[in-house]
Amino acid sequence: MSGINYSEKIPNNVNLANDRTLQRALEHWQPHFLDWWKGMGPTDFQGADVYLRTAVSVDADGWAQYGAVKMPDYRWGIFLADPVANRTIGFGDAMGQPVWQQVPGEYRSTLRRLIVTQGDTEPASVEQQRLLGHTCPSLYDLRNLFQVNVEEGRHLWAMVYLLHAYFGRDGREEAEELLARHSGDADKPRILTTFNEPISDWLSFYCFTYFTDRDGKYQLKSLAESGFDPLSRTCRFMLTEEAHHMFVGETGIGRVVKRTLEVMKELGTDDPGRIRAHGAVDLPLLQKYLNFWCSSSLDLFGNEISSNSAANFANGLKGRPDESQYDDHVLREKLFTMRTPQGEESVPMLNALNEVMRESYLKDCEIGLKRWNRQIERAGHAFRLTLPATNFRRSIGAWAGLPVSPDGKLIPKEEYEKRLYDWIPSEADKAFVHSLMHKVAEPGKMAGWVAPPERGINNLPVDYEYVKLH
Ligand SMILES: [Fe+2]
Ligand SMILES: [Fe+2]
């Protein structure tokens, strides 16, 4: 079951050849996907040889194979984690009952919406990042960008497979729509706001892969708990790919910190102006980027109080990430103390699950910060990077539009407006970051604002020619 069949037009481990109708429908969608990739994917690099990994099995160890590939020839396909024998629903009112191999009629539209919303983010991020190749800080980074891009393309395949296989005609229509909406499009934007923000510089790319791909990880983890078994198996395999995206973010920001500390040492100063004049990113500027992307990603978890997430949990559709680590899987009796602008409120735990997820997400975000702060501490500086409070700069939920400082305090509106660009990048900050973005495409060479990585990909040296541009 784990092995992937690459002899077919669409690589898969779901026995696609046994279902001719489904196979034909997906083979019909495949050229539409390729057109989308060529039109909306990375610009001007379709002919380059990129050192990419491709899934060859869904086993935990050794699932990937590495080699030079032209991106349009990448073998996108359908890979599900192996089924767990006798798996039962792990939470909600149907806890302990066998998982579903087909979509229960009463949950059809809800499940379809969950899958479409997840699926929409995958091609959206490819579109957001399509111009980045032109300003890559190194060939190593360029390769990582393209690896992330082809895998987000594969995640789209993962969701489209579910739509085609389990949702009939509606599903096929949704699959077409996933290629018709575009990030930032005035008429047909992507579903979620964060996925309509352009990512036009590499500092934003590192922050996006750190914060927004991590939101993806949390969404996938909660869908991996689903009672709809094909969705669970799909998401379980996607999570193994997602780990690399967050690695790119965490090590990317770590390398920016490292380079900044080198420049600070060289110049003997922490003056942002002098650090910038030397072509590096001062730490307060990095903090603004963290504030921007973290707060934008926090909105993705939705309203603090949500009857939809309560119903999705109670019905066994969407659990909490790592559901098994909790004691109570039904939550009919539990309460949650919620901080709202009106003060503390006690709400049924079932209705507070978005907030529960948001909190565990932020805990996961702390891991990188600890690492980066250790670098700063070791270099002898008092500055520390922090995460903004969950209620800072929110546009969804109880705190939406309220003037809250990054440390979580409600402040007068005038003060908030006056200080906002002390907290998130101003136009001048963005212009400076953009001024650093120049393509460095010689093997082993690095842009001046970021340190080289500690090691290369798949045990290759850092100066390996990861992308052959021709
Ligand atoms: Fe993804
Ligand atoms: Fe991702």
Task: State the helix count.
Answer: 12
Helix content: 40-55%
Unreliable segments of 5+ consecutive residues:
none
The secondary-structure element order is HEEHHHHHHHHEEHHHE
Counting helices, strands and paired strands, the structural category is mainly alpha
Strand order across the largest sheet:
2-1-5
Topology (elements, then pairings):
Elements: H1 20-40, E1 49-55, E2 64-70, H2 108-128, H3 139-166, H4 168-180, H5 202-224, H6 229-267, H7 272-277, H8 283-298, H9 307-314, E3 335-340, E4 343-348, H10 353-378, H11 413-423, H12 427-436, E5 467-468
The structure holds fe (ii) ion (2 copies).
The site of one fe (ii) ion (FE2) has 5 residues, from α5 and α6.
Structure, described:
By secondary structure, the protein is mainly alpha-helical. 47% of the residues lie in helices and 6% in strands. The chain contains 12 helices and 5 strands. The strands form 2 sheets. It has a 3-stranded antiparallel sheet with strand order 2-1-5. Strands 3-4 form a two-stranded antiparallel ribbon. Helix 1 runs antiparallel to helix 3 and helix 5 runs antiparallel to helix 6. The longest helix is centred in the middle third of the chain and has 39 residues. The radius of gyration is 23 Å and the shape is globular. The model has no long low-confidence stretch (mean pLDDT 96). It binds fe (ii) ion (FE2) (2 copies).
